[in-house]
Design a protein that fits this description.
The protein is α+β, with helices and mostly antiparallel strands. The chain contains 5 helices and 6 strands, in the order H-H-E-E-E-H-E-E-E-H-H. The strands form 2 sheets. A 4-stranded mixed beta sheet has the order 1-6-3-2. One of its GO terms (biological process) is transcription by RNA polymerase I.
Length: 217
């Protein structure tokens, strides 16, 4: 038998839900003398990546004058992974009011305290990027062969051919002029040969007519 969930959840149902700790949570024992132990000491909040073993962190290689990740502290290695630690100054100024320090109560469990977090640190994994020789990796550009006689024939709205040098008719090169002259000469010689053939054909017709008229006489 399949049990379906309720279509609507009332306030009374939600109030009965109990908090379930996340997977892998291990309860810790807190002493009731936190206030005494924290007296004249600072509380630091350290953020670390998943899987980072805080027990192996013996000291914090922090730079208090670093202005960027590149000018920060010297990286350190843990389990063949490189990390750096940086202080979050902006968080220090704005975030203390967002956090509440919990400590062990006299009757057990955790209770909120008036203690404030003084410093915030962030442990980041870093990756070493090798230096790249861009001159050796860059492929030289090969220019496309320029075609003579191209003109710009389409213009943006509000412009015409007078606004662009590319739209003007290109000047003929010496090779173009020579080809044009050769074409003109060929055309003229073709017309002349056709004219000569036409004239010779007319003469032959006249001769045939004369011969025919003589025979009839």
């Amino acid at each position: 038998m399949v049990i379906k969930s309720k279509e609507y959840v009332s306030d009374s149902d939600s109030e009965n839900d109990e908090f379930e700790p996340p997977k892998g949570f291990k309860p810790q024992q807190f002493g009731a003398d936190f206030a005494k132990a924290a007296k004249d000491k600072e509380i630091w909040l350290i953020k670390a990546p998943k899987g980072f073993d805080m027990n192996e962190l013996k000291k914090l290689p922090v730079s208090f004058t670093a202005t960027s990740l590149k000018k920060g502290p010297t990286p350190f290695t843990q389990n063949d992974v490189t990390y750096t630690v940086n202080e979050e100054l902006l968080t220090t100024e704005n975030a203390p009011s967002k956090y509440t320090v919990l400590a062990g109560g006299k009757t057990g469990g955790l209770v909120s305290t008036s203690a404030k977090i003084n410093r915030f640190y962030n442990i980041r994994e870093t990756v070493s990027i090798p230096k790249i020789d861009f001159d050796a990796a860059r492929v030289p550009r090969k220019d496309v062969e320029e075609v003579e006689g191209l003109r710009m024939r389409h213009f943006p709205t509000g412009y015409d051919a007078n606004d662009f040098e590319e739209a003007k008719a290109p000047a003929q090169s010496e090779s173009s002029k020579k080809r044009s002259a050769d074409t003109t000469e060929d055309a003229q010689s073709t017309k002349k040969s056709k004219k000569d053939k036409s004239e010779s054909g007319d003469k032959d017709k006249e001769k045939k007519k004369k011969k025919k008229s003589k025979k009839q006489k």
